[in-house]
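Hi Y.,

Following your request, here is the sequence exactly as I used it, all 415 residues.
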Amino acid sequence: MSISLIVSAIIFILIAARQWLPPAFRIWHIMTLGAVVLLALRQITLVDAFFAVDWDLILYLFSVFSIASALYDTGISAQISKRILSRKGPNTILASYVLIMAVCAALLTNDAAAVIGVPIALLMAKEMKWGVVPLLILLCATVTIGSMVSPVGNPQNILIANEGQFDNMFLVFAEWIFIPAAITLILSIFWLKRFLKFNESNHNVAIKPRKDNDIAQKWPPLLSAILLIILIALASVLHNVEGIYHPTLGQIGLVACSPIYLASHERRRILREVDWPTLFFFISMFIVTGSLLKSGSLQFFLRQSGIDLAEPETVTFVSFFASQLFSNVPVVEIYLNLLEGHDTQTLMMLSAISTVAGNLFIISAASNVIVLQQAEKFGIQPFNFWQFFLLMLPVSIISVVTSYLYIIWYGSLQQ
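Below is the corresponding structure, written out as tokens. Let me know if you'd prefer a different format.
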């Protein structure tokens, strides 16, 4: 057994047991420590570690985190909550919030939507006298499910879209995943909204809407968000057009967030408030998976077991349960490196199941951790491990079954 495999197993165990570790010991600490250990033990060189990192993905995440931070910093999050609360009836208010967060996740990634959605959820909980815990858990489910339908909805989808080289990546994801995602989201709302009546003392909510005269420039983050959406849409449409330059997602993100850092008076504060821990988590994750792949341990195991990674049942089983131990992004990164060829159905199954796997445990998706950390920043004691698991177990079952059955059925139509 290689040292890389042993260190990776220890990382799996520590992440799985994180809720029993000291609160100051975060998930990104575990992953970064693992990467440092592997570098110190020379299981991967600095050069190999550098090239193991998907820097394009890191640049894109930095860009969307910057936009999300700026949107909150300018008070736009508070204004969105006011618009939502102006709707008539609690069901309409809840549906509006879920729809906005789902669309935000699809366009700006689930992690960015989590950053934007937490202060809105806290303001809504205080105004509507809803329970903070179930509303934050609903936010986790919403951004996870909403991110399924877009190639830029989450980091694992970005990896899969880059691997698949689809003619029109947005159309492919919509054809294969939109319907099961919509069904899952609707059923999840019906299940989770019943728990909102349990109000666990919202007087501790520390967030307050900003007054208009305290709000900084609004146009740079708004322009950045609009630019990001337009540039991604253009890149998808012009993907196969020859004779023109095709920018990467990271380059698109940097161009989109440039108004914030060039024109905003709050650029320094926005830069400080970027979710750096999550970026460090992903950089370290790529180093750990790069070392594991370099060791050849997983390749040897697969050759000996005779497992066909392209089988739908194998994709479903491995991507779902492995994501519970090590989060879905590193699982997809490893899976893509081990596949010996793939078709669209295999990639879409990997995308859908690895994404909805984030609905089971807090550690299964980085967006869950972001929601938790953002709530703590506002002085809220958010959901614990068992609260999340018990409320999200039915959501996980529904999402996996629905996604698997639909992708199998749609795949049969394409043959």
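The CA atoms of residues 69 and 273 lie 6 Å apart.

Thanks again,
Q.
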